[in-house]
Amino acid sequence: MTKFLVVDVSLVYNAIVGRPMIHDVQAVVSTYHMPMIYVSNNGFLERVRGSRTMARECYVTALKQPCQQPPIDGVG
Protein backbone atom coordinates (compact mmCIF):
# COMPACT_ATOMS: atom_id res chain seq x y z
CA MET A 1 0.00 0.00 0.00
CA THR A 2 1.17 3.50 -0.78
CA LYS A 3 -0.15 6.78 0.55
CA PHE A 4 -0.60 9.64 -1.91
CA LEU A 5 -0.92 13.33 -1.31
CA VAL A 6 -3.78 14.78 -3.34
CA VAL A 7 -3.56 18.48 -4.12
CA ASP A 8 -6.01 20.82 -5.83
CA VAL A 9 -3.66 22.46 -8.33
CA SER A 10 -3.28 22.40 -12.08
CA LEU A 11 -0.26 20.31 -13.04
CA VAL A 12 1.02 18.68 -16.19
CA TYR A 13 1.22 15.33 -14.37
CA ASN A 14 -1.52 13.01 -13.11
CA ALA A 15 0.81 11.56 -10.50
CA ILE A 16 4.34 12.10 -9.34
CA VAL A 17 5.95 9.01 -7.86
CA GLY A 18 9.42 8.81 -6.41
CA ARG A 19 12.05 6.13 -6.25
CA PRO A 20 11.01 4.88 -2.78
CA MET A 21 7.48 4.08 -4.02
CA ILE A 22 8.81 2.52 -7.23
CA HIS A 23 11.15 0.39 -5.11
CA ASP A 24 8.43 -0.57 -2.62
CA VAL A 25 6.11 -1.86 -5.35
CA GLN A 26 9.07 -3.45 -7.19
CA ALA A 27 8.14 -1.53 -10.34
CA VAL A 28 10.08 -1.23 -13.57
CA VAL A 29 9.77 2.11 -15.36
CA SER A 30 10.63 2.84 -18.99
CA THR A 31 10.80 6.57 -19.71
CA TYR A 32 11.00 5.89 -23.44
CA HIS A 33 7.93 3.63 -23.65
CA MET A 34 6.13 5.39 -20.75
CA PRO A 35 4.79 2.40 -18.80
CA MET A 36 5.37 1.40 -15.21
CA ILE A 37 5.08 -2.34 -14.60
CA TYR A 38 4.61 -3.72 -11.10
CA VAL A 39 3.43 -6.86 -9.33
CA SER A 40 -0.09 -6.51 -7.89
CA ASN A 41 -1.19 -7.86 -4.50
CA ASN A 42 -2.63 -10.85 -6.40
CA GLY A 43 0.80 -11.63 -7.89
CA PHE A 44 -0.04 -10.52 -11.44
CA LEU A 45 1.96 -8.04 -13.52
CA GLU A 46 0.06 -4.77 -13.86
CA ARG A 47 0.84 -1.80 -16.11
CA VAL A 48 0.29 1.91 -15.77
CA ARG A 49 0.66 3.48 -19.21
CA GLY A 50 1.44 7.05 -20.14
CA SER A 51 0.82 8.89 -23.37
CA ARG A 52 3.49 11.08 -24.96
CA THR A 53 0.85 12.97 -26.92
CA MET A 54 -1.27 13.68 -23.83
CA ALA A 55 1.80 14.59 -21.77
CA ARG A 56 2.91 17.04 -24.46
CA GLU A 57 -0.57 18.60 -24.69
CA CYS A 58 -0.78 19.00 -20.90
CA TYR A 59 2.67 20.56 -20.81
CA VAL A 60 1.83 23.09 -23.53
CA THR A 61 -1.49 23.93 -21.85
CA ALA A 62 0.25 24.46 -18.50
CA LEU A 63 2.79 26.78 -20.13
CA LYS A 64 0.00 28.94 -21.54
CA GLN A 65 -1.75 29.40 -18.16
CA PRO A 66 -0.53 32.13 -15.83
CA CYS A 67 1.03 30.85 -12.63
CA GLN A 68 -1.16 31.64 -9.64
CA GLN A 69 -0.02 31.30 -6.04
CA PRO A 70 -2.85 30.72 -3.56
CA PRO A 71 -2.69 32.93 -0.46
CA ILE A 72 -1.11 31.30 2.58
CA ASP A 73 -3.33 31.68 5.65
CA GLY A 74 -1.80 32.36 9.03
CA VAL A 75 1.57 33.57 7.74
CA GLY A 76 2.89 36.98 8.74
TrEMBL record:
The lineage of its organism: Eukaryota, Viridiplantae, Streptophyta, Embryophyta, Tracheophyta. This is Uncharacterized protein.
